[in-house]
Inverse folding.
């Protein structure tokens, strides 16, 4: 798939334009809390843009590349659910006001997109020149899948990375938020608000998740253009998905196992591909339609099973109320002697 520099430039300009409109036109100065209803509307908008782009790939490059794009988009979107847990922890840890959460999340996504772009460029160059890289990617994905099954991906602890520690040490930072501003004045001097630190935390922490999601999408397509655009559209709609799902993520109890199966499947596919490239006759080439079927089927099955197994919020609230009533000491009434 040949993509000219002009198409790359137009695509990047379009993605940046969408983000700029979201940040500086639609939601600029909006102090309302980002409700689930608003999140649902904008989730539909962003998914619609991703689908339109995929149809454009189909029209100009053919169904094979369109299938690779859609497979990559669905994979990145599903793997990004883990990001939502981390976003919740970061926003809670820094006590970000609700009206400023949308702004800081979108700004953090911009940083994540830039860092992922660099990661994709390095990965694409390595794959193009060294077939054995597929063994490394495949083995890493299978190891990550094993860690998810054992519960290694369920930790909600967020450690400060090198970039965040450097920012805290070097950049003058105020102690208080100033609306949804990233810069403020402290003692007559400019300083960044905690919102800037949160933005850096979200953007740089996302790179840790790219360590498994980027190799995973390279298992579906080796076209850097499709890898980048699938990541871009998955990340751009992630903010709206964060507000839409809310507490629903706690009910997806089997999602980790489903993601582990997907990562393991793609890891095995990468290893088979490398063996096939080295001339191993028995190593099969897994077609893209089978990859799409496995990914979609696994996500649907794990979601349905999770929602069926998880207790409903009303039931949980009722059980909590019953436990509280049982724990409350009884108030003694008037005795017969006191009458």
């Amino acid at each position: 798939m040949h993509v000219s520099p002009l198409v790359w430039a137009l695509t990047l300009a379009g993605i940046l334009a969408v983000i700029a409109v979201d940040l500086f036109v639609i939601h600029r100065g909006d102090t309302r809390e980002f409700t689930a209803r608003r999140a649902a509307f904008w989730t539909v908008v962003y998914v619609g843009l991703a689908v339109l782009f995929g149809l454009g790939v189909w029209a100009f490059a053919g169904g094979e590349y369109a299938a690779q794009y859609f497979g990559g988009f669905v994979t990145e979107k599903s793997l990004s659910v883990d990001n939502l847990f981390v976003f919740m922890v970061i926003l809670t840890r820094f006590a970000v006001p609700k009206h400023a959460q949308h702004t800081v999340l979108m700004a953090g996504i911009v940083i994540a997109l830039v860092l992922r772009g660099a990661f994709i460029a390095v990965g694409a160059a390595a794959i193009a020149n060294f077939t054995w890289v597929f063994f490394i990617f495949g083995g890493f994905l299978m190891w990550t899948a094993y860690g998810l099954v054992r519960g290694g991906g369920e930790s909600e602890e967020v450690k400060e990375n090198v970039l965040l520690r450097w920012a805290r040490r070097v950049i003058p930072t105020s102690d208080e938020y100033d609306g949804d501003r990233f810069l403020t004045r402290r003692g007559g001097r400019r300083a960044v608000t905690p919102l800037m630190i949160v933005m850096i935390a979200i953007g740089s922490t996302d790179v840790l998740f790219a360590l498994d999601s980027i190799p995973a999408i390279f298992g579906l397509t080796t076209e850097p253009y499709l890898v980048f655009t699938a990541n871009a559209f998955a990340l751009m709609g992630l903010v709206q998905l964060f507000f839409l799902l809310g507490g629903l993520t706690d009910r997806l109890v089997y999602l980790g196992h489903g993601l582990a199966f997907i990562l393991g499947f793609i890891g095995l596919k990468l290893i088979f591909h490398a063996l096939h490239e080295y001339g191993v006759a028995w190593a099969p080439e897994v077609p893209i339609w089978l990859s799409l079927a496995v990914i979609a089927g696994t996500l649907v099955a794990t979601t349905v099973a999770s929602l069926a197994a998880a207790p409903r919020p009303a039931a949980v609230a009722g059980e909590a109320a019953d436990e509280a009533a049982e724990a409350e000491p009884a108030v003694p009434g008037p005795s017969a002697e006191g009458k």
